[in-house]
Amino acid sequence: MLIDVYDFDGTIYDGDSTVDFVRFALRRHPRVILGLPRVALAAIRLAAGRSSLTRFKSVLFHEMSRRFSLEDEARAFWQSEGTRRKLGAWFQTTPRDLPIVIASASPEFELTHAAKLLGVGHLIGTQCDMKTGELTGKNCKGAQKIARIREALGEFEVRAMYTDDAKADGPLLAIAKERYIVTHGQVKRI
After folding, report:
1. pLDDT exceeds cutoff 90 at 130
2. 45-50 contact pairs (CB < 8 A, 24+)
3. CA dihedral defined by 25, 29, 33, 35, rounded to 10 degrees?
4. Residue 91 and residue 56: Cα distance in Å, rounded?
């Protein structure tokens, strides 16, 4: 199967959608601050190299899930006009003659509504149990994106890969026939 692959954060979405989602949720649910000690400890362990990004995200989303529905909050996040404005207009005008896959390290529950808004049928992201907030797999980054796409679609080839980070998405760029770097909506072939 021949596909086009798009990273999400910094590529289709101008910024980091998970950071924006957490801020959005904190404004709407200030009680999340009660989980700050656990999240701060997880952040310190991550910074010290004593823990993984997967573990940090599990702690963060677990604390959030204890206080509200992650799915409902994600829906509200994508209904927000401010959030929608950060979706790149360039993406809407890019030709869609092949199946499109969004492959992101952001959690799938957070991006499901964005994929629907964008009319994208294949979303690959970090898997997370929406009830507990625990990540159920590895952080979907680097070579993990390739493994997850293969798991979802079977064997595939990448015609075009769009990303804002050539290092993080190096494995996908390496197998793409066409490679693009996106910076604040400006697309440049590399």
Report:
1. no
2. none
3. -80
4. 31
